[in-house]
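Hello Y.,

Per our agreement to keep a running log of every chain we model this quarter, I'm adding this entry. I've kept the format consistent with earlier entries: sequence first, then predicted structure.
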Amino acid sequence: MNKEKTLILIEEDPTSLLSDEYEQKAYHYSLFFRRVNKPLRALRRFWLMYRLPFLTLWFNDWYHHLEDYETLIVNMNYLTRNVLDKVSSKNPDLRIIGWYWNTVDDRNAPVDFHNNKIEYWSFDEKDCVTYGFQKNIQYYCYVEDQTKRNKDIDIYFIGREKDRKTEIMSFSAAADRFGLKKEFHVIGEGDRLIPYSEVREALTRTRAVLEINKNNQTGFTLRVLESLFYGIKLITNNKGIRNTEIYNENNVFIIGEDDEKKLPDFIRSPYDHSSDRLKDDFSVDKWFNGFDKTRG
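Predicted structure for the entry above:
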């Protein structure tokens, strides 16, 4: 794929972690939707969900410059899924890739995944089989922070509730029993979204990051890659991770399999940096090249 002729569209989300490395590596990117105030965001959500006339009024300026590009990569969510046909109809020669870097659920499932003008891709093996998506790697945009900070958090969690609250709170109680310091952000519907700059700062202060996956989820989530790129421990309920290249018993604790009593020692033991060799396998460049059908 031609990097100069590819545009990556990201959602309007203050938690976005993408733009810094896109800029560093000279990728072309834009917010999908124009920035608007909170009342207008509610109106826009209603407008797009019900596909009212003149949907493209909400699009950012990129929509008026589609002739400059050969390929469009769209980060899929519950709003962008409703409007890709508008893009394909404006420029039928444009290659459109709908990228799922979260697993599919009722809110973001494609509404037109049989549309042969749009390619859908995912990192998740199960979703690829269920929906006929094509598979690419999950990736992480890492921005190095030279600031030295004290490790004052033992376990860090951030994520949407997604029917996982009981399991998250159960693990939180276990951490309390061992006197571990934790910082948990369980985000419910309508809660404030935490800017990813704050998440990055917290990752530099923590010893371990907690991942609680949905049932039957496969593939590496953002939490796994944060662990790898920041050199911090991973605590996960994903039992399948034991059979992957990223598993290292010194760095990964599997809930329900590893001895819970050993959790404090696991967290406080040194991180095994031999896993650093895997970082290039989950880079943004590796992900971008994974869409190139002329490779392989």
